[in-house]
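Quick start: what a row looks like.
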Amino acid sequence: HWLNEYLKLINNATINFCKKNSIKCIDLHNNILMDDKEDFYDGIHTTPLGSKKIGDTIYNNLFL
């Protein structure tokens, strides 16, 4: 998707901010393998399957 490069910049800036300030940060971009056709409607908005992958990753990083 054409926004991927911008999203990578935002993701890296957010992770660096978290590291610098000792804040827990979950790097979804590098921790979830998302399929463009199954996990997204339009490259940005997730399908129920994509949303479940995100939710499961957040849950596993916060509570397990």
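That is the whole record. The CA atoms of residues 3 and 44 lie 8 Å apart. The chain has a mean pLDDT of 93.
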